[in-house]
Design a protein that fits this description.
The protein has 296 residues and is an alpha/beta fold. It contains eleven helices and eight strands. α5 links the parallel β5 and β6. The chain starts with 8 loop residues before the first strand and ends in a 23-residue tail after the last helix. The structure holds 1,4-dihydronicotinamide adenine dinucleotide.
Amino acid sequence: MAALDKSMMIGVIGAGAMGAGIAQVAAQSGHLVKLYDNRADAAKETIASIEKQLKRLVERKKFTLEQVQQTVANLQVANELADFEHAGLVIEAIVENRDVKQAVFAELESICSAQCILATNTSSISITRLAAGMKHPERMVGMHFFNPAPIMKLVEVVSGLVTSKEIATTVFDTAAAWGKVPVYAASTPGFIVNRVARPFYAESLRLKQEQVADCATLDALMREAGGFRMGAFELTDLIGQDVNYAVTCSVFDAYYGDFRFQPSLIQKDLVDAGYLGRKSGEGFYSYKEGAVKPEP
Ligand code: NAI
């Protein structure tokens, strides 16, 4: 099996943090990409924002103007899911909710050809469960990018119980052709990275709850002594507290309430208050203009 041909159109659903990054990666690799979001103007605004960010990288000599123009020319707004009729691969990156994702895949099955690969960027939801009830469950696969997708190399290629080996191989080879470092994973809760990362977040939150140290101290310690690129608090602010909380609950439930994966009330409070992290301007830290990130 080989990577998907560049002539194949890629559909991306969800123009949030991950959908934007995935669309950019596929467009940069030479595919025509159609981006759909059910929020009015979201896809259009996301493409404009990708263009703006890439132009900044031209100033910093990381991209040529031609590369940026080519990438932007490859990005189109999809006004409805029906625009994915001729896609070779559709990657879903919407809200981390099984019912909502399943409804989207059910609709896609009535639109896309039987050859089209249906992939999800879910962080935690079972691929086996998402595929259940589909006409062609063997073409459902996890293609799990990391945030920010244009920078992070790793992609987990996740197979459910009935995912076809050929489909997983094509997605693996496609991710590699897009400059990523793919790994195969079986669909267990949290796959590989989120299985390892959940107790890291949970234990950091317990330290904060017990007032052992504040967020900035704990983050600095993980960076300086632990060698992590980010501590748990700054990382979950980047991920989005809403997304991270949904993933925590999903993994906790899937492991029958295993204490290691237990969500924290601190997370729930942040979500209830709309303190979603960078995307809302406030999370564990403030990202508002003039705000100074506290140093320990
Ligand atoms: P986000 O909240 O930034 O964006 C989600 C987008 O999906 C929004 O623009 C929303 O309007 C749209 N949407 C929601 N329901 C929709 C529907 N039915 N049809 C079309 N569009 C719809 O979320 P984010 O962070 O991009 O996450 C998306 C997915 O990627 C989730 O499954 C998440 O678990 C996963 N993920 C997130 C990572 C992160 O660091 N944020 C990392 C890796 C995976």
